[in-house]
Amino acid sequence: MDVTRGYVVTRPFPGSNVGSNLASLAGAVLVAQKLERGLVVDWRGMAQLQDKTINYFAEFFENRDTLLGVPVLYAPVAGAEYDRETGAPWLNANEAAAAARGDLDLGDCEFVVLEEYHGPDRLLPAADESGRFAHLRRFYREVSPGPELRAAIDEWADEHIGGRFVVGVNVRTGNGAYFRPGQPYAGRVDLTVLDDGERLLRVLERAVAKRAAHLPRAVRDTAVTFYATDSEPMSRLLSRLPGSVTRRRTFPPPDTGDLHAFEGSPGDDHASVVDTLADMFLLARCDALVYNNSVFNQYARVLNAYFGGNQTHIDSLFLKGRLRMLAAAARRRL
User: Fold this and answer.
1) Which tens digit of pLDDT belongs to each residue from 271-315?
2) What is the domain-level CATH number for residue 87?
3) 275 is in which domain, residue-wise?
4) Among 7, 24, 154, 282, which residue is least crowded by beta carbons within 10 Å?
5) Each residue's pLDDT tens digit, 28-56
6) CATH number at residue 237
7) How far is CA 63 from each of CA 50, 122, 298, rounded to the nearest angstrom?
8) C-alpha distances in angstroms, 263 versus 48, 189, 259, 267?
């Protein structure tokens, strides 16, 4: 692709996390394709890292020369200036969607910056669900861990999983932030189904067993439950699931969310990010999935085509959640 037209810069908010940032990167690729521009991946300043000069993506992911045919550079790029003071356009989500449609004239500016969440669900029409899925799946197939992280994931998986059937369990809690009344994303995750730990554990046990119920007895009896969560107390609860294994050891303190940078504790921020990303990539290696709302597990769900239907949303395991999901589906149809 000719990049003489300039570059699209994906520059997520410092307080965003890897699931939404990857989706935004997929959207930035879409905009770059439409505008026939190159792409600059600039994930510097992320709240999870103590050193704000580190480019989170370049540090932990494979640095490909292209993504879906779009030439890619990784910040810092020598001579590239696109702060607001330079006059470079910083597009909001609606403007990014207009750019993806080809309805926004950006003139001859060298850099166009996308900061507000710009995943394909914001850029493509709601009716084009299959198009969003196809683009995300093609994109996720080109996203891989960097060599050091890949080696760590492979070593752990060989030791703890081997070739056995694996049911992934991903429980997003917000770690005391985001989802409670009065917090930024209140209601996005139904915390009420997580409040009674013993009840939740029983429900998850049944859901995990159902995911493997169709397997031959010998395979079913050696199945593994790989669990991933953002909360140390939830991790302790999930450790009681039959056949459970997990990799994460470094968690933010309770009630600090998932953007804690462990100031004053050198190296823990890096270890926490490695644990987070390893969980994301390991979920994608599972054969079935039990999950709740999180863009974090979107990588696994889309890459595996929703596990061929062998997945279930945690809310659907409770009557109140099923009714709410049915109502939402009815509103979409209407």
Assistant:
1) 999 999 999 999 999 999 999 999 999 999 999 999 999 999 999
2) 3.40.50.11340
3) 147-333
4) 154
5) 999 999 999 999 999 999 999 999 999 99
6) 3.40.50.11350
7) 22, 25, 21
8) 10, 28, 11, 9
